[in-house]
Amino acid sequence: MRRKPSMFSRNYRNQLRKRRIRYATVISVIIVLLLVGLFSGKIMGGVSNIKASLTNIFSKETSKDESIIENVEENKVNENSSDADVEVKPAVEEEQFSLTLNENENINIIYAINNDKKEIKQVKGSGNIIYNISPSKEKVVILNNTTQDIYIADLNKNLTNLSKTEYISTKKEVFKKETIMKQFKNYVWAEKPTFIDDTHIAYSSNLPWINDSGTKYLWIIDTATGQHKSNTKVKGNDFQFADINAKGLTLIIDNTTMYIDNNGNIVM
After folding, report:
1. What is the pLDDT of residues 30-44, one digit of tens each?
2. pTM
3. What is the DSSP string of the chain?
4. Segments making up each domain of the chain, as ranges
């Protein structure tokens, strides 16, 4: 039985129109051949030729229809395979909680939950703060730029003030943070705290010198003990902390790049 054009074909209407044209052409050819056969006296030979021509045409049409159907079915299989290959990623939820740094400063810590694992994403505050997230993404260090106080918070909603409130010189002189910052308006007590690893934080400060020279020095906080330790050999005017790699935390001082380990040692 003669197949109709496949409804799965994208050019369904065009194929129908082309088929009608082919049928009309075949009929015209038959009529012409009959007339030629009648006038030439070779009707039997003409009929044989007509039969062969029709068989050839119908064979080609059947082959085309089968090819179209095969292509449509193959496309369906490919589409189904593509759908099966698409990985369905689990939804990532985001939640947040609030903490109070001081009487005038509240922050929101936003974290994501992915496969039951929590990761800190960002910190939002009402004041002038900067923050840095630990390598494990379970802790965050926060600096209040106005007061220059340093805090550390974690996903268990623990908040600890790591600020160095005073400096005791080698001569046992005590210099209070609030007093020094009032005396020297541009004094940098602490800036740019950045994680070296999950328990050590680097920052820069004008300490241990009490003056307005502007020179800064490297300091390291051990968050387990709260101890601040300086490395006065590492100094400069502009400190920039960058990424962490196998050598340690990247530190760029006045365009010179070096690396810090968790003891404050420098690798060039």
Report:
1. 777 777 666 555 445
2. 0.67
3. -PPPPPTT-TTHHHHHHHHHHHHHHHHHHHHHHHHHHHHHT-HHHHHHHHHHHHHHHHHHHHHHHHHHHHHHHHHHHHHHHHHHHS--PPPPEEEEEEEEEETTEEEEEEEEEETTEEEEEEEEESSSEEEEE-TTSSEEEEEETTTTEEEEEETT--EEE----EEE-TT--EEEHHHHHHHSTT--SSEEEEEEETTEEEEEESTT--SSS--EEEEEEETTTTEEEEEEEEEES-EEEEEEETTEEEEEETTEEEEE-TTS-EE-
4. 12-85, 164-267
